[in-house]
Amino acid sequence: MFAAIKRIIKHGFKNFKRQAPLHFATIFILIIALSLLTSIFLFRSTINYLVSEIQKKIDVSVYFKQNTPATEIEKIKEDIGELDDIEEVEYISAQRALEDFKEKHKDEPLILQSVDVLGENPFFPSLNIRAKKPNQYAAVLAYFDGSDFQDIIYEVDYIKKKTIIDRLFSMTSNLSLAGIILSIFLGAVAVLVAFNTIRITIKDSGEEISIMKLVGASSWFVQGPFIVQGILCGLLAALATFFLFYLTVYFSAPKILSITGGFNIFAWFGRNIFNLFLLQFGGGLILSVFSGMIATRKYL
């Protein structure tokens, strides 16, 4: 048994060297296929980051009348924070709102002077509420519409932000759907391209396979060398794809960081380096070995 395995491995390496041009063509196609599959993960991670950042910038503000006690607003904050749909609730007092306004316009003396002329704080205490998903803000509005503290609420700015929230929800849904469709399409292309390329490689050995069968070689013994060749092609393609993406991510990270406003793709690559290599190596083996086993069946 061990001797047979040794011969299969030796024969596989021998065929790999003898058919080097065809195998390099196979490796090249596998690199393209694995690059497509890896790109899917990079694309989805970038989109998920952008969607998450956009969601963080969307909230609903509930403004309370200026004479509302802070303890009562804090109690409402605690009650809202217990809702399942709520991600975060922040209380902003009227004094803090005034200070934030002055800080924002510290280089605009005319605006600051106009506030001082009023002689009183024109801002209202508020709760900034951020839901877990864009489509959950309607539930926030329903909560306040049915509450017992309508008499202390000055305004809920949900209607003003509804258009932005609806567009965000539509955009996130479309991006997710586009990512799924792209993943399916690129995966199908990768499998078809790799399979047909490996089939061409095996077709070149069709006569040799037929002779081996005529002299009594088992199907396992015939397929063995092609499995070895598939493993070599998959391993080399995975290594080449890995280093290609490492260099691409390294040099493109600053550009992507500036475009996305904070997504460090090189750091993400480092956190997922093991999983990415397993994906590429496993994908290379599956595409090459499985395709090779199917393609050889014609001659067995």
Question: Helices and strands in order, then pairings?
Answer:
Elements (H helix, E strand, L loop, with lengths): L1 H17 L1 H37 L3 E5 L5 H12 L4 E7 L1 H11 L4 H10 L7 E6 L5 H9 L7 E4 L1 H46 L2 H9 L4 H42 L4 H7 L1 H24 L4
Antiparallel strand pairs: 1-3, 1-4, 2-3
Helix pairs in contact: 1-9, 2-7, 2-9, 2-11, 7-11, 9-11
What would you note in describing this structure?
The chain is of the alpha+beta class and 300 residues long. A four-stranded antiparallel beta sheet has the order 2-3-1-4. It starts with a helix and ends with a helix. It is 75% helix and 7% strand. Helix 2 (20-56) runs parallel beside helix 9 (219-260) and helix 9 (219-260) runs antiparallel to helix 11. It has eleven helices and four strands, in the order ααβαβααβαβααααα. The longest helix has 46 residues, at 158-203.
